[in-house]
């Protein structure tokens, strides 16, 4: 990960984010961030038993201890490296009990994160890539955020997932802007670089600017080849 942070600096990015950095000592990540001057936007709570197909723990009934442990781990690591946010992963489940569990764990996460000045993010994932994931669309996320009513609970708005699930990315972005804490992007539907596909990111990026958004955007896409060769979009769309 320290090498990836340095590569991001060389490539011209202004900030970085990561998924699950826990195998790398926080001191090494903190040093790489200091050397490059980049900020770490956020990281995720662990998925759980990946071999068993788990994609998060915080909405799983009967797993409260595991969920809270994952939240504490993520917040502690984020605090140690100076990250700004923690994405709390819900997991694959559904139903009233799962919703109540997620609300309880998110409320606890917000309280734990508040002590370090961190934002808690929740992200709807599309059913094509994450079948069975508890949080499936922005309206569901919005309802939960308003119900929990914590000042540091925000929406992770991933243009790719929204484009796959709700089609009109621009309209949904404008509607959800008041509760958005971070924005990510990738081409729809192949999750490649943002210079092709069904979503016109020249328009989306212009809209984001017009709406007054001043924070970095996360380029969470899958390069067709090596990362460096996929960065031509930065000159055209930035």
Mind sketching the topology for me?
Elements: H1 2-11, E1 15-16, H2 26-36, E2 39-40, E3 42-44, H3 64-81, E4 85-87, H4 96-114, E5 119-122, H5 138-148, E6 153-158, H6 159-165, H7 169-176, E7 180-185, H8 201-210, E8 217-219, H9 232-237
Parallel strand pairs: 1-2, 3-4, 4-5, 5-6, 6-7, 7-8
Helix pairs in contact: 1-2, 3-4
Describe the structure.
The protein contains 9 helices and 8 strands. It is globular, with a radius of gyration of 17 Å. 42% of the residues lie in helices and 12% in strands. Helix 1 (2-11) runs parallel beside helix 2 (26-36) and helix 3 runs parallel beside helix 4 (96-114). The strands form 2 sheets. A 6-stranded parallel sheet has the order 3-4-5-6-7-8. A two-stranded parallel ribbon has the order 1-2. The protein is α/β, with parallel strands linked by helices.
Brief rundown of the structure:
This protein is an alpha/beta fold and 238 residues long. It is built from 9 helices and 8 strands.
Q: Indicate the mean pLDDT.
A: 97
Major sheet size, sense and barrel closure: 6 strands, parallel
Following the backbone from N to C, one meets helices and strands in this order, namely HEHEEHEHEHEHHEHEH
Helical content, roughly? 40-55%
Report the end-to-end length measured between terminal Cα atoms: 25 Å
The number of helical segments is: 9
What would you call the shape? globular
What is the spatial order of strands in the main beta sheet?
A: 3-4-5-6-7-8
What is the number of strand segments?
8
């Amino acid at each position: 990960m320290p090498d990836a942070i340095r590569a991001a600096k060389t490539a011209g990015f202004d900030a970085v984010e990561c998924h699950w950095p826990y195998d790398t000592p926080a001191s090494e990540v903190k040093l790489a961030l200091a050397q490059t001057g980049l900020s770490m936007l956020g990281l995720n709570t662990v998925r759980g038993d990946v071999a068993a197909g788990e994609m998060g723990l915080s909405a799983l009934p009967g797993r409260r201890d595991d969920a809270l442990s994952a939240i504490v781990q993520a917040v502690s690591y984020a605090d140690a490296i100076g990250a700004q946010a923690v994405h709390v992963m819900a997991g694959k489940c559904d139903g009233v009990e799962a919703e109540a569990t997620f609300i309880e764990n998110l409320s606890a996460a917000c309280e734990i994160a508040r002590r370090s000045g961190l934002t808690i993010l929740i992200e709807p994932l599309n059913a094509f890539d994450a079948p069975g994931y508890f949080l499936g669309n922005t309206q569901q996320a919005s309802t939960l955020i308003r119900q929990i009513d914590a000042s540091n609970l925000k929406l992770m708005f991933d243009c790719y997932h929204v484009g796959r699930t709700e089609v009109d990315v621009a309209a949904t972005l404008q509607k959800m802007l008041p509760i958005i804490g971070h924005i990510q992007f990738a081409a729809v539907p192949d999750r490649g670089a943002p210079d092709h596909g069904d979503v016109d990111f020249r328009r989306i990026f212009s809209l984001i600017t017009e709406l007054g958004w001043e924070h970095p955007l996360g380029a969470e896409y899958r390069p067709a080849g090596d990362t460096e060769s996929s960065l031509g979009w930065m000159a055209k769309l930035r």
